[in-house]
Amino acid sequence: MNGYDGISRRDLLKMGLFSSAFMLGGAYDELFAMTSPSGAVKIPHATHFGALKAVVSGGRFMGSEPHENDYAPTSMLYSLPEYVHSQNRIKYPCVRKSFLAGQRNTALRGCEDFVRVDWKTALDLVAKILRDVKDNYGNESIYRPSFAGWSHPGVIGRPDILQGRFFGLHGGFTDTIGDYSAGAATHILPHVMGGLEIYSYQTTYEMIAKHTKTMVLWGSDPFKTFRISYSVPDHARIEWFVNMKNAGMKFISIDPVYTETAKFMDAEWIPIKPNTDVAMIMAICFELFVSGEYDKSFLEKYTVGFDIFRNYLTGKNDGVRKNPEWAEKICGISSGTIRRLATEFRKTGTLLTSHYGCQRADNGEQFHWALITLACMLGQVGTPGGGYHFGNGGLAYSGKVMPRRMSQGRNPARTVIPASRIGEMLLNPGRTIDFNGNKITYPKISMLHNMGSNIMTQHPNTNELLEGMRGVENIITHEIVWNATAVYSDIVLPVTSTFERNDITYGDPYSNTRIWAMKQVIPPLFEAKDDYWILSELAKRLGFEKDFTEGRSQMDWIRWSYSNVETNMPFEQFWRQGFLEFKVPSKNKSFARLADFRKNPQASPLFTPSGKIEIFSEKVASFGYDDCPGHPTWIEPKEWLGAELAKKHKYHLLSIHPKHRLHSQMDNISLKEQYKVKGREPVVLHPDDARDLGIREGELVEVYNDRGAIICGAQISTTMRRYVVRVDEGAWYSPEEPCGIGARCLGGNVNVLTPSRPTSKLAQACAAHSCLVSLRKVQGKIKNNEAYKNPVVITEE
Fold first, then answer.
1. Which family does it belong to (predicted)?
2. Helices (H), 292-414
3. What is the pLDDT of residues 334-386, one digit of tens each?
């Protein structure tokens, strides 16, 4: 736990970057020993919040002891026992009352009682529905909205993998393509760079610390995003940032929010208007071009299409010069600041870093395309400390093969829709849309099958989704707790948490330096079963159990997965000690993204048509999309502070990741008392905006637009740009009128307000950050937030 030299632990604790237990340092062990029950056992496990030893006594998960190599354990890791034993746990298989009676009144979802049934009754009913839907409507009518692994880091028990395998053997299903996180980037960057790029291995922190002079955090708050991981974090990235700060690296944060990272790194804050990043990038590119301070030789050797982009930049085609004065009127940053940044970027070793937030907006494809174009004009792409840097990458890669997943197999239906199009699909069966140069026709969905996915907080425009769900005859959900997705289902199957099942995983997803045993910590609570057992039982009823299980138990699959690992350690030894660690070869610590391409573009070409970086893409241009032309372009968002709609709704709403939960996970535990305001999700706004609205700290506020309304608690802060407000995503949905559509959400679920329209015809991705709202103080009495109140479950005699 080195790396704090010269930095006050008290300051870190006040910022909340690390948990208070961690900040106690060596004293924590003594404290833990005092509070641990006598006779407790410690069992190794691993989670999205970090690896740990679960302290178990009397069959109950009592505490979390973080792994010794965890640099900065979070409050979420310490709160896991409360989540596992939450009063919101689903105890038994349940069926909506009228649904069990054979009725299909979908309007009663969310406000009708459930009936407790035994597992045989529940599984027989699900199997019957699966047969009937397949026979009457075809496999395309079955939709799997689960596409990611955020509910479970395990390799074998990951719900979306199991679900894909099961439905493939059942004859197929309508699947999801892309994701909510980076849907625009993952579809435009293959045209520009020849690969996903944003999820690729990035220049290592070793190279950055040694060579980078200025790091630009463009819409990026790594201290928040590093708290969790798609697999298992050890929070080592925090140490790298601490050390880079101590070494004197300069940080610049271009963001509407003064983030925790910006504050900790003493970054210069450029408070840009939301969704105007591309305009600012264009102006920096313009300034580099007209001043002659751009790398012409790099552009000629490593890129194609700059001449076409240059004509756009200088206004030769449209008469608009994309100079700093032009950009100042759009993004609210002075032309002098833009010119200074252009000079500074060119004259120092500058690394342009970004995450995924900027591309979750109208025309989000343009942001990363523009950022790469700027990096190319600077000529630092492929150098050890320059160019661009995406996402969570940066830890050096071990080069080791990780545990393997079971195959999902083939989906015979071959029908896919982009992740963000759920609501539109449900409401418009038969509609054909453009998608990445192709056409997609929406199927008629008769069955939604949710596993590891809380779509009621995940999907934008909640009221549109609710309306679309009314047209779906069957909604079946596997869940741990009574969140809104479970409450709005017809059949609910209680599943175990990861602590009640065995699995295997690895971490970090970029470094691949450790393999973790996810050992079962406690017996399954109540009547909960793991997903593998549930799907195996359904496969038995549908006639393909042998193909689904291949005769293996879950522990057999874990052993099979481990057999793929390059190690001499026997499985029994690994399982006993709980983890396996690999060293990173020295040469891998010197990795620089695209260094081989820079060294010899002929020998190491990119997988683009030209083999080079495509500033202009003939393929994208050939699609003929008016909202995604063939080169990076400033396209005015549909909702932003410069839109006509801003005369009606004058505040730009940002729905960013929460600090104290993983999306909606853990919204229901006592950790919420650290940030909720009068039991509601906070809305953070600038003091001048609060004064204009007559709102005081801690008062209840209605945030609303034409899509809906939510109730939040006011939090007033100078960390926000004026006319920009923030409500973190993931609060549980709590409608004022449970049976209706359009009711105010009493808990502050921000996706009631966000738009479901796509970024463009190319990616059809999530554009939730292009959202305008109004605010007003709540007058009079208002109902309590009942998001954490379980539905009534009737036990039939």
1. Belongs to the prokaryotic molybdopterin-containing oxidoreductase family.
2. 296-302, 306-313, 324-331, 335-347, 365-378
3. 999 999 999 999 998 899 999 999 999 999 999 999 999 999 999 999 999 99
Q: What is the DSSP string of 630-646?
A: SS------SSSTTSGGG
Judge if 156 and 214 occupy the same domain: no
CB 223 within 8 A of CB 238: yes
* Residue 23 in this model has a pLDDT that exceeds 90: no
Are 249 and 162 members of one domain? no
Q: What is the pTM of this model?
A: 0.94
Angle at 140 between CA 134 and CA 144, to 5 degrees: 100
Instruction: Quote the CA–CA distance of 734 and 783 in Å, as a whole number.
Output: 10
**In this structure, what are the phi and psi dihedrals at residue 702, rounded to the nearest 5 degrees?**
-95, 120
d(CA 186, CA 299): 23
- The tokens describing 39, both together, are 């006779």
Q: Are residues 354 and 222 in the same domain?
A: yes
For 742-785, the pLDDT digits (tens) are 999 999 999 999 999 999 999 999 999 999 999 999 999 999 99
The H or E element containing residue 424 is helix 422-427
- Furthest CA-CA distance within the chain: 83
Residue that the structure tokens 């709005």 belong to:
488
Domain that holds residue 662: 644-777
| Per-residue pLDDT band at 797 (split at 50, 70, 90) | low
Helices 365-378, 277-291: crossing angle, 10 deg rounding: 20
Residue 571 CA to residue 456 CA, distance in Å, equals 40
Asked if residue 388 and residue 244 are part of one domain, the reply reads yes
Check whether residue 367 and residue 479 sit in a common domain. Answer: no
Nearest-angstrom CA–CA distance, 424 and 401: 40
Domain for residue 135, yes or no? yes
Q: Closest by alpha carbon to 641, among 770, 460, 776? A: 770
Query: Is the domain of 122 the same as that of 224?
Result: no
Do 77 and 66 touch, CB atoms closer than 8 A?
Answer: yes
CA distance 82 to 111: 27
Report DSSP letters for 211-247, one per residue. H-SEEEEES--HHHHTTS-SS----HHHHHHHHHHHT
- The residues, any chain, with a CB within 8 Å of residue 10's CB and separated by 6 or more, are none
Using one digit for the tens of pLDDT, what is the confidence trace for 80-96? Answer: 999 999 999 999 999 99
Q: Which percentage of the chain shows pLDDT scores above 90?
A: 91
Q: What is the mean pLDDT of residues 300-316?
A: 98
Total domains, the chain? 3
Domain ends where: 341, 362, 394? 394
Give just the sign of the alpha carbon dihedral 683, 689, 693, 695. Answer: positive
Task: Please tell me whether residues 463 and 547 are part of one structural domain.
Answer: yes
The pLDDT-based confidence of 38 (bands split at 50, 70, 90) is low
Which helix (H) or strand (E) element contains residue 96?
strand 94-96
Q: What is the CATH number of the domain that holds 548?
A: 3.40.50.740
* 338 and 423 assigned to the same domain: no
Dig out the tokens for 197 from the structure: 């790029």
